[in-house]
Amino acid sequence: MTLSIRTVGLSALALAILGGLAVTAFRSDPIPVDLATLERGALSVTVDAEGQTRIRDRYDVAAPIAGTLRRAPVAVGDLVAKDVTVVAQVDPATSGLLDARSRAEAEAALHEAEAAVQYARAEVTRTEAEAAHAQAQYDRARALAERGAGALTALEDAEQRRAIARAATQSAKARLQMAVAGLERARAVLSQPDAGDAAASCCLTLTAPADGVVVEIADRSARPVVAGAPILTIGDPADLEIVVDLLSSEATRLAPGAPARVERWGGATPLSAELRLIEPAARTVVSALGIEEQRVDAVLDITSPPEARAGLGDGFAVFVRIEEWRTEDALLIPLAAVFRRGGAWFTFVVEDGVVQERGIEIGRRDGRFAVVEAGLAAGDAVILHPPDTIEPGVAVTPRARR
């Protein structure tokens, strides 16, 4: 059967219309995505931790003796001058009252000491008499020897007896002194504290060991203290340092002299600081999750001038970022644009509106960016936070910014 030209034309037109409708039906629109263009810039990798300020040099004043500490003559915040300002006064402790048994023992000891003194005095009298007799015998023997009427041996014997008598006298006098001291000690045990004498006697006065400000007082009220009891602390609030508690694994990556940034201290602008030292010994700390951790203190000096940190005092909380590594010129990629698969790093690159998956190598990174070591170049466009619908060959378009 022969088809007319009109029929063939109408059929072709219908097929063309159906094909166009099919293409229109199955064609997908470009997916809107967030893009970032790679640029070169500076990157700083830091160790971040919370810390606390403290006065660099603290001078603790303690009670040198046991006694009663008088009410503090100074208050927290008072300026003090070295060796001038009186910061504490301590009354020496008085002896306690004796019970009946102790008093009886003390009275017996007193009678014993008195008898010992009497005996020692009698011994002194006896030895002095013997020494005088020995001296007289010596004088007689010497006179006879000088006239030739006495033997030389008799003079030597008399001289020896005189020396022995003199030594006995000195020994007796020493025992008398010991007995007198024992008597005084026995009397002291029985003596009772006299309130009038205690009030008249001067207390032990303590002056400031250094120039500064009183930063802490253990207790302003009068109280009994033992030797070594803390009384107050003096320091210079303008001379502050920062102590940061770090994991030992983090501390090993830092070196003294590393710059730091102090944030959240209460001021409008961050402060500058410098890592001075990392303490040589770590300690074991149990975390809130029950995990044992090795932690160590890092000490930083605040390099910002005092006028830039007005109001910052001792024991204030701060947040510190200590610089571990820094570069001024590196190709940077946002961490939101990279993902890991099979131990390798990848990113989605957009070229001419079409997605391509590309393997890359990255190096140092902070919380936002990473250094690109291979696989990308400056000016490349990468997708941030790629959704699950993104795959190689998909058409995309930049998302409109609001």
From TrEMBL:
Gene Ontology terms, MF aspect: efflux transmembrane transporter activity
- Which processes are annotated in GO (biological process)? xenobiotic detoxification by transmembrane export across the plasma membrane
Query: What keywords is this UniProt entry annotated with?
Result: Coiled coil
Alphabetical list of SUPFAM superfamilies matching this protein: Outer membrane efflux proteins (OEP)
InterPro entries this protein is in? Answer: MacA_alpha-hairpin_sf, YknX-like_C
Tell me if Coiled coil is a UniProt keyword of this record. Answer: yes
Q: Does the keyword Coiled coil apply?
A: yes
Question: Which Gene Ontology cellular-component terms appear in the entry?
Answer: cell envelope; efflux pump complex; extrinsic component of membrane; macrolide transmembrane transporter complex
Where in the numbering of this chain does the YknX-like C-terminal permuted SH3-like domain appear? 331-397
Which residues does UniProt call coiled coil? 103-175
Name recorded for this polypeptide: RND transporter
| Taxonomy of the source species | Bacteria, Pseudomonadati, Pseudomonadota, Alphaproteobacteria, Rhodobacterales
